[in-house]
Each structure stands twice: as C-alpha cells, then as structure tokens.
Design brief:
6 helices; 15-stranded mixed beta sheet; disordered N terminus; 29% strand; globular; alpha+beta
C-alpha cells in the first residue's frame, strides 16, 4: 500500500500544467552571528577549512547539538519505518539546463533535476532539487572510515496545497553519495562537466541516474542534521548511502587540484568539515529507493508537461 501511494505521487509530477509553477520555497533560519560579527564569508578573514573548530566563534549555530557531518556507527543504527526516499530525477534526454556556478570552496552545479519525496520527522514531504557539489574527502564517515569523495544533492521544501512550511522541521533534504578511487572506473560525464571550468555558463545535459543505478546495495542512513558550512543551520534531513561508487584516478585528481591552497584548506588540502558529535540523535537505516528518472513530455506531444523553478541558493553549500 505504501509503495503504491508513492508511485502515484511520482506520477503527479509528470502530469501538471506547462504553465510556470510559482512555488513558495521554505526559508532557512536566519544566520545568527556572534557579537561584533555581521557576516561569515569563506577566506582568511572569515572561515576556512584550517579552523573548523573556530566556526562557532563566528556563527554560534556551528556549535549546536544537531551538527553535520557525523560518524555513522552501523551497529547502532535503528531500522527506519517507511522513510525510504522517492527519487524523481530528469533524464539526459530531457531539455534540461545545468550551470556550473562560481563557489569559493567547492565544485557546484545548479540545474533542473526535479524532485524527491523524503521523510521529515516521520511525515513525507516533497523537496525540489536545486544543486549538487563535492567534498573531498567525504564528510560523513561510516564506522570511522572516510571515503575519497562525497557528492551532496541538495533539495528544498516548498509550500503547496495544505503543506505549510511551519509544519516542516527540516527545510532541506540532502543525499550524500560516497566515492572511492578505482583503477577500473570509467569517467562520469557529469564530472567532466564539473571539471571543465565552464563557470556561470550553461553546460551539457547529463543523466544523474547513472549514480543511483549503480548502487547494487541501496542501504541508506537517515538522520537530522545541519549544513556542513557556516551558517551551519540545523534544518537538514540527511540520507547517506552506504555503498561507495568508483571514481577514476584522473577525475579524482582533477577535483583534488582545486584544494591545494593550504591557507584555505589546511595541510590536508581538504574541503571537508570534521565529524560532529551525535548528541543522542537517532540514525535510522533502510534499504531501497522508490521511483526513477522521469522524462518530460514535450508541449508538442501533450498539453501536459513539467516546469521546474529552481531556487537559487547562492553560496549555500552543505
């Protein structure tokens, strides 16, 4: 019954009017700065990856009790109840625009890659995809082990019908997908795009399903956390998938070359925040995802279609 309801929900996103959908996206909490601090920007005069323990001196929320990333202890995770995410990403054949944007401390691509259904405090809400970016090495650990790289797929909630943002605890849902270097890995076209340096320009379409289709083990870990960069807002549903996918050495090295400034990224040359305390939070685990990649119906074929508005998150990185 639950699966059939979710599948019906997925179909709803394909059969809506082609007129532009004006969404009211849920707002993130305003940043709370320390006394005599008016902003916290990335750089030697603000925050860097050389001083993550001092971020809370700029933004007190960074010292909160629901911070991310965390070390996921698999033996301590609890079985989740109906919290598997539904993924409804667009296929490469869809006329989708992607843009690589200039962000000081990561590689980021914004684009219209659709929506997901995710569990927020045991209630399901729709979150709309906005951007994805990388951290190297992974920010999350599983049983104390980092992987070579982690991609964050960022989705934001919106008001619709009877859905009120005030009733949604976590305004963002983020998928954490892990990668390890492999000598036999083929290059991902999406990574070629991110490595191209084609900043602030449209880039070729690519198929995000290539990642999720490779997950032979669809085990995920779900918990309530935060942004992993200032302002560290504690408003994120995290889904971290346990299986590490392969990445070629050449593509990994291309990403690593962006973090060689030790003044900004420290001697480890990393753009990853250290793991934070769990502080009695519960990590649930499940296996499997529902949904797949959707293809838009062109206006010429039908009066129905799908128009997605993506909220510009600016320099918000998770």
């Amino acid at each position: 019954m639950f699966i059939s309801k979710l599948l019906i929900h997925v179909l709803v996103f394909v059969i809506i009017n082609t007129e532009e959908t004006n969404r009211t996206y849920c707002q993130l909490p305003e940043a709370i700065y320390a006394d005599n601090v008016t902003s916290a920007s990335f750089g030697p005069s603000g925050w860097t990856y050389t001083n993550p323990g001092l971020w809370k001196n700029l933004v007190p929320t960074c010292g909160g009790n629901r911070q991310s990333p965390i070390n996921i202890i698999t033996a301590n995770s609890k079985a989740g109840y109906n919290d598997a995410p539904t993924i409804n990403y667009l296929s490469k054949s869809t006329n989708t625009n992607y843009t690589q944007v200039a962000v000081a401390y990561t590689k980021e691509v914004e684009g219209e890659f659709d929506s997901i259904l995710a569990s927020d405090y045991s209630e399901n809400f729709t979150y709309y995809a906005s951007q994805f970016h990388i951290h190297l090495p992974s920010e999350h650990q599983i049983d104390g082990v980092n992987t070579d790289l982690e991609i964050h797929f960022v989705h934001i909630a919106a008001e619709a019908g009877k859905v009120d943002c005030n009733n949604i605890h976590n305004k963002l849902t983020v998928f954490g997908l892990l990668f390890n270097r492999s000598p036999n890995a083929s290059n991902y076209s999406v990574f070629d795009t991110m490595a191209s340096g084609n900043v602030n320009n449209s880039v070729s379409s690519f198929d995000l399903s290539i990642f999720f289709n490779q997950l032979s083990d669809q085990t995920y870990f779900h918990y309530n956390g935060s942004l992993t960069t200032p302002p560290c807002s504690q408003t994120v549903n995290w889904y971290v998938f346990s299986q590490a996918l392969p990445i070629s050495t050449s593509q990994y090295n291309n990403f690593a070359s962006a973090y060689t400034n030790t003044t900004l990224y420290g001697s480890a040359m990393s753009n990853s925040r250290p793991v934070q305390g769990l502080n009695n939070r519960v990590v649930t685990t499940g296996k499997g995802m529902i949904g797949s990649v959707a293809t838009l119906i062109s206006e010429g074929e039908s009066k129905f279609g799908l128009v997605i508005n993506i909220m510009a998150l600016g320099c918000l990185i998770i």
